Structures are given as structure tokens and as C-alpha cells.
Amino acid sequence: MSFFSLKSSLLALTAIAGALALKYPDRALFDEHRENVPHPDGLPILGSLLTVSKNKDRYFEFLLEIYEQLDTLTFRSSSLTIQPNFSNYNKSDSFKDTFHNFLGDGIFNTDGENWRLQRRTASQIFHVKNFQTEFSSIFVRHIQVMSGHIFDKAADLSQPIDFHEIMLKFTMDTFVEIAFGVKIDSLLKQVEFAESFDAIQFHNFRSLVFPLHTVTNKIKETLNFKSDKKTIAQHMSIVNAFVYDIIKERRSQPEKTEEAYFKTDLLLRFMKAKNSKGNLYTDEDLRNSILNFIVAGRDTSAQTLSWFFYNVMLYPRIENELLDEIIEFIPDGIENDTVKLYEAIQEMTYSHAVLYEVLRLYPAVPGNRKQALKDDVLPDGTVVYKGDEITFQPFCQGRHEKVWGPDAKEFKPERWISEKGDLIKMDGGKFVAFHAGPRVCLGQNMATLEILIAMVLLLKNYKFRSFPGHKVEFSNQVTLSMKNGMKVYVEKR
């Protein structure tokens, strides 16, 4: 190519870039602003790409700042107000596509008849008798394991422990036993599955909010091919091997009795159920169901327990009030009678109020990407068209003054207690920690019970203190995790 030809080509490219920059002065290429919908200003052609990349480690805090700067409840494809027409919104195609390699067509990643059948099958284990006996017994037994093998030793040796990591192991052990009849004992030994499970979730979430992550991660894996660090493909192999081993073991076991079947065995129910095509579930279908329910049953409870105790350590007044209520309702030895323990938990108003305040400010699922089935108008007047993707933001909603008033960012359990001393039930569109509409959390009562049983038995026996110099930060994933865990010291009471 001659000098003049090269110069002409560069001039042409410059002219095209200049024309595009004039057409897209504050947004990404081919992105069009919706009329009457606020939006943050971005860079010509690139839009918010660089800003999102810069803030990817504090994604939900970054979104809250935009809501506050624009003084709005909706901007671009992000909103705090989907109610009251929640049933008009399915899981978005982008979410389902990104997570399909991990979750397949499981309940967390599907809609329609497939979702309804899975929900109906799973719902059969969530009844009061199971809460009072089977569930509570499993929770108590694993709390005793956790106490004897971890907390007592940490207290005796004055050694710091990662509370968040322990909660993830605790909820993994309890949920896998409850739902699938398998004891993995991750509290007592290293389980490779858990590390890979978390790594895949982190990777997929990053890919969802920052599409270039998939490319940059692949480059890193290629450049570090001699590294001991596992690739996403290797993590997926570990997860699949773990789950398929469970399925293989269960298929080889003799049929359970009718009495055992109607207790807690979620996997057996799915093995007996039929999918939306009228066929029995394949091993792949069962694999998808197991992973989806572990996300729902293990991660959400572990994150909430961790943020609960984070705030207990942060606010001594709240810890003292919780202890007063524990003294009133939880006598020594009550854990040996799980029916009485269950009934006592239901009476603990202040404990429930603290839990709801934790969920308001630290929702287990901080963001939820949806897609409109029909045209709609959000409560703030924003027009949504069929096929539009919109991300509902519980994390931002719980901290926004337009929703919760001037004290929105304050941790105040008292906001949940009426003048008569009763728990206040917030409007379904205001408090959505357990989701809303037809997809309201199926296991919310089980999660509440597990969290409060763990809280009362641990707080009754131990005092937890923050490890000096350790900063607790958000890790932005499908669930609101802790980036570097939560190091604490343990003292026996």
C-alpha cells in the first residue's frame, strides 16, 4: 500500500469515527436512549464500558451511586420498581444463556411449564412438620459439629477463623443432607466441589455484567497454562463429577419406604417426577436440579448468616438486645426438643426484625435480571416494551432514600416492630429479599429457621470479635458474598 493510500484510509477511518462520535456522543455504539428514561452520561462510542470495568469489584455500590446521582428509581435497563406486575417478567435471555453451562434448565434458570413443575415437586418438602423435626434436627446437629470441631478449638487457642467460609460449609452440609440425603461433612474436611462451585458462579456473573470478562479470562487461562490455578473447564468437571456421583449412588440404592419418601428427600422426588415433556428426569435433568437448589439453599443462607453476625459485631447494642431475647426464649437444652425450639423461634420478634434488616441492606440476591413478556408501565411511570431486559435491584432498593426514607442506610431493626411490639409486614414491592410474585422464594421459611436457629445457638454460647485490620468487602456474584471472607476471634460465654 502506498503512503497516499494509507493516509487516505486513515482519514476515512477518522471521519467515520468522528461521525459515529457525533451520533453517539455519550453512549455505546448503536445504543439508543429511551425517551423519558434517565441515563448516566458515558463516553462517545464506548458508553459506560470503561466505567463499569473500573467499578466491577463494587458493582452494586456503583449502581446505587448512579440512582442517587440521577435522583431516580429507574435508569436505562435498571429499576427499583417492578411491582405490582411482577408476573410479567421472566428470567432474561442473557442471564439464562450465561448461566446455562452451570445451571442448565433448572428452577433458578428457567420459566414456564418447566419452572412450574420443578417448583411443584420441590414444594412438597416445605411443610411445618419437616420444619419442626427433620430440618431443625439437621440444623442443630451440624451446629454442634461446627461448635465442637471449630469454634471451641478457636476459642481455646485464641486463633482467628474465617466465619464466612464456615457458614458456607455449614449450609452446604445441611442443605445437601436435607435435599439429597448425602452427608458430605465439609465442616470436617476439604471438599473440592465447593471451591469450584463458587469459582464458576463468580466467572458467570462477571461475564453477565462485563461481557469482555469471558475473553480476558480465556486469555489469562491460556497464558497461565502451566499454573496450578484451575481453569473454568476444570472447575466444571469437578462440579459435574461430584453431582453425578450423588445421582449414581442414589440410583443404585434400594427404594425408600413411603414414610421416608415423604420427609425431606428432594432428589428422590425428582427421580420419581416427570419433566415438561412427560418423561422421567434424566441424569442431566437431576444434575441441573441439584445445582440450582444448592445455589438457592446453600449460598443465600450462608451469605445472610455472615452479614447477620457482621452487624452483630458492628453494633453492641443490637447484640445485647438479641442476648436478652435469647435468655427469655432459649433455655439450656432446648435444642434437644426441636419442636419446642421451633416454637420458641417463632416468638422471637426482635431476632426476626434484625434478620429482616440484614436482608434489607444485604439481600442474598442483590440483583435480578428480567425480561418483559408484554408491554408494561412501571409504578414510577417508566414504559417497558415486550422483550425489554430490565434488572431489578434489591441491593440498591434497600438503601435508597426514595424507598426507605432519609434513614435508609442506617441499620435499624426497630423499623420492623410496631408500637404494639408486633412484626411489621412490609409491602411486597418495598421489601423483596425473598423475591415477589409467582417466583417468591420457595424456601424462605426454611432459610429463616436455619438462620435463626444458628444465630441463637451460636450467640448463646460464643462472643465473636472482628479481627483487627481485616476489611470485610462485598464480592459481587449471583449472591452477595464476602470478597475476602470475615476473620473473627471467638470467645466462649
From TrEMBL:
Q: Which PROSITE patterns match?
A: CYTOCHROME_P450
Keyword list (alphabetical) reads:
Heme, Iron, Metal-binding, Monooxygenase, Oxidoreductase, Signal
Among Pfam families, the record links this protein to: p450
> Per the UniProt record, which residue ranges are transmembrane?
none
Q: Which domain of life is it from?
A: Eukaryota
The residues forming the signal peptide are: 1-21
> Which family does the record assign?
Belongs to the cytochrome P450 family.
Name by which UniProt lists this protein: Cytochrome P450
Question: Native species of this protein?
Answer: Mucor flavus
